[in-house]
Amino acid sequence: MRDRQPPRDAARQRPAPHTGDDAAGAPPASSLPVLGRRENIPEPAGGSADTGVVGRLTSTVERLRSELDQARAEADGRALVELAKGILVERLGYGPADASRQLEDLAGQSKLSVLELAADLVNQASQDRIAGVAREFVAAAGEPPVGLRLRSAETGMLRADDVQAVAKAALEHALTPLGAQAVAIWAANADQSLTLAGSAGFAEQEASLWRHVPPGVPTPARQALIARAATSYESLTAAGLPSIGQRAITGGRLAVPAGLGGRITGVIEICWPDALPQQSQSLQRQFETLAELCATALESRPPAGSDPAGATETAELLELVHGLPDPCLVLRPVFDASDLPTDYLIKHINPGFVDFAGRPRSAIIGARLLEAYPLAAEAGGLFEKVEHVLATGESFRSPAMTLSTLVDGVTLSTEAAVDISRHGSHVVVLLRTQDGTARVANLLQHAQRLGRIGGFEENLRTGEIAWNETLLDLYGLTLGADPISIERLADYAHPDDEHAIARFLRTLLHHRRPASTAFRLKRADGIARHIRVVAEPVIGAEERLLAVRGAYQDVSAQHWTEVALAATRDQLAHTEQQSAERNRLALQLQHAIMPPSRGPLDLHGLRVAVRYRPAEKDHLVGGDWYDAAALPTGQVLLCVGDVAGHGIDAATGMVALRNALRGLAATGAGPAQLLAWLNSVTHHLTDSVTATAVCALYDPPSRLLRWARAGHLPPLLLREGVASELPAVEGILLGAIDQAQYGEGEIRMKPGDTLMMYTDGLIERRDRSLQESLDDLLTSAQTPGQSEELAELEHRLDHLLRYSSADTDDDTCLIGVKVC
Fold it and tell me: What are the alphabetically sorted keywords of the record (predicted)?
């Protein structure tokens, strides 16, 4: 593909012809043509007037270009000399004038030019890669100008405005002395194409033809990228590879990958008219140093022309992403030696982006995708989808995708709608969280404010201290006030806390371990605060302590709360002791009246067995009660009840109702009338007690059973192996109203019938309805008992208690009556 070169670059890219000028690069002043003087404008032999004018203009343009190149070279040299003067000023304490004279004197004594001496001084002071290459070359070849050439090239390349000027500086200062004729600097693109970012020594038309090299063209620069190493060719023609200047410069070629930090961003291609120079180790180091300088230029400067390749497209993409309200990531692929994407650099995040794990934006931008979200590498995860979109160009959309990451070893996940699309060499990932985690993460900043947590970070190397507004407020400082170093923590604390602060600082700064402590802060306005500080060290290379960071929290409210709690702790312990004593008395009272287990009774042809199961927890002593007694009338009283509540009040209420019912039953009244009287007793003679009860009277001669209930569960009748509820009769619970009427039912019992009366603790469950629990009880009651007659009734009661599905931890009372 051919790109049109902007007209304003034509003059800059045309190679300057050799004019035979002196070393300064310009002819003597007397030989310069004077405009307006005809005698100083030579006419070309045999040419017309028009041809003479064109020739004169061409000569003027060439001369001005030569002067411009020479001025640039002199400026580069002056920059190097000024850098050396600065070293003398800094190291020896000279003034600017003294440093200039000293530099000239030293140059004269060492028989070097001022420029060469300046390069040596910079090499000795910097001790960088260029200085190392220069020392190696001097040791191997004894040729000291190499340091000057590389340092001059560095100065020119750093002062260059764009990569085109960088290429010219590299050719003029470093490569021409090595016999090179031209140089090209290629930028490597994400789609595996190459862009000519800058060149020198080629014709203008040739450079425009090679402005863009599509993927797959096997040029020397492409081969160097594939190999990720310098690639040389003794003859470009013999190698048969296409490249810039292939017709005019057919000699040796050397392509060196240019990269920084393990990431290759381009290639520098050096061209010789003849064979390659002998590739010594020192010479290879020079080329690698130049490639590193070119990589710096590719990272920080635009290619030749007004706009870098794809820069407009990238700017438009970032502008579009910037306006999106949803969180958005712009990813740039990172390729391996085989030009396959291994990861994606998070190049940009829009203002709406909030990390769902609550991490700051600075921790996400500039990181790689698998560094920020390592769990994205799971099969079918985000990384796989991004890779597919980059390879195929097909957009990906998912209404619900799980995103996960690891924060301090803890997995945090969220669900989001994800849109992934490719835009040129970049991939855009749009996230719309479904559960509001982005909004919640955004509220973490407000949580710090509400929790009065102030964050800080202190650079121990530079002394720079960063505090947030909350921390300034904790110390009573205004916004913009100077923060206080953590080493001065004791100056603002109560004297009694000095030792605790000393241990905190020793652990943090000397042992370099995370530490925390609490102290009393003394503010300038006289207000005292109880503060807890937590901090951790930041360790750099070679185990150097670089900084400390952490947080202060105002725990004054917590402190005074603890003081108040401590003041009432004794009173609370005394109250707990009293409560335990009341529970113990209630349990003793309950057991005295109704032992947990009781043997069977024979009452006028009835066999009666009772089972009582108290609550598992002592403080839940309940009010369940039962009674089975022969009355003076010859009837048998059977009753069971449940007083609402727990504790000693419920136990005493149970005693009162049980005794009152037994006394009322001696009158000979029926069960409905007995419950009506017992309701009045409950309403008037007890302190806000309510209860449920079922009361039955059995007449032995007729085997007639009459019964009534007050809000209680109906009894069960087991006849011929089938269990059923007795017919429902109406009746409100005891104590609810003053006067109440109760219905009454009756059934004639048969020999072998079994009647079961129980409290709700036998069947109640929190996860099912009462009817479902009753159905389960009927099924359990029909289970055959033991074959022995005497053990059959008790076995059934034990079976019902053992397989009860109740889960309310309430006490339970169960009466079984069998007609003999």
Answer: Hydrolase, Kinase, Transcription, Transcription regulation, Transferase
Please report, for the domain that includes residue 689, its CATH number. Answer: 3.60.40.10
Q: Which residues have C-beta within 8 Å of that of residue 54, sequence separation ≥ 6? A: none
Q: Which residues contact 69 (CB under 8 A, 6 or more apart)?
A: 16, 25, 168, 172
292 and 322 belong to one structural domain: no
Does one domain contain both 389 and 468? no
- Name the residue with tokens 């003053």: 738
Model pLDDT, residue 294: 84
Encode pLDDT of 396-424 as tens digits: 998 888 887 765 555 667 788 899 998 87
Q: What stretches in the chain show pLDDT beneath 50? A: 1-51, 127-144, 146-147, 304-310, 438, 441, 785-791
Identify whether residues 452 and 550 lie together within a single domain. yes
Identify the sign of the CA torsion 103, 105, 110, 113. Answer: positive
Q: Is residue 573 part of a domain?
A: no
Phi–psi pair at 403, nearest 5 degrees: -115, 135
DSSP track, 308-343: -TTHHHHHHHHHHHHT-SS-EEEEEEEE-TTS-EEE
Angle at CA of residue 607, ends 602 and 612, nearest 5°: 105
> What pLDDT, on the 0 to 100 scale, is given for residue 144?
41
Report yes or no: 175 and 192 within 8 Å, Cβ to Cβ.
no
Instruction: Please indicate, yes or no, if residue 264 is contained in any of the structural domains.
Output: yes
Q: Are residues 168 and 87 in the same domain?
A: yes
What is the per-residue DSSP string for 84-106?
Answer: HHHHHHHHH---HHHHHHHHHHH
| pLDDT for res 635 | 94
515 in Cβ contact with 535 (< 8 Å): yes
- CATH number, domain with residue 393: 3.30.450.20
Distance, first Cα to last Cα, the chain: 112
Q: Please report, to the nearest 10 degrees, the dihedral formed by the alpha carbons of residues 396, 398, 402, 408 taken in order.
A: 40
What stretch of H or E contains 503? helix 498-505
**Cα–Cα distance measured from residue 561 to residue 568, given in angstroms and rounded to the nearest whole number:** 11
Measured CA angle at 503 (ends 497, 509), to 5 deg: 125
Give Cα separations from 296 to 157, 166, 425, 436, 467 (angstroms).
Answer: 9, 10, 21, 42, 35
Q: Report the domain count for the chain.
A: 4
- Residue 200, classed as helix, strand or coil, is strand
Q: What is the pLDDT of residue 27?
A: 37
Strand order in the sheet with 212-213: 212-213, 194-200, 182-188, 263-271, 253-260, 231-233
Q: Which two tokens stand for residue 596?
A: 């947990």
Q: Is residue 3 part of a domain?
A: no
* pLDDT attached to residue 376: 84
**Pair (164, 214) in one structural domain:** yes
Same domain, 451 and 417: no
Last residue of a domain, one of 380, 406, 436: 436
Q: Tell me phi and psi for residue 192, to 5 degrees.
A: 70, 15
Paired with 184 in beta bridges are: 199, 269
E strand map for 82-218: 182-188, 194-200, 212-213
Q: Coil, strand or helix: which one is 694?
A: strand
Here the contacts of 84-93 (C-beta below 8 Å, separation 24 or greater) are: 84/117, 84/118, 84/119, 84/121, 84/122, 87/121, 87/122, 87/125, 88/121, 91/125
769 in a structural domain: yes
Say yes or no: 500 and 420 in one domain: no
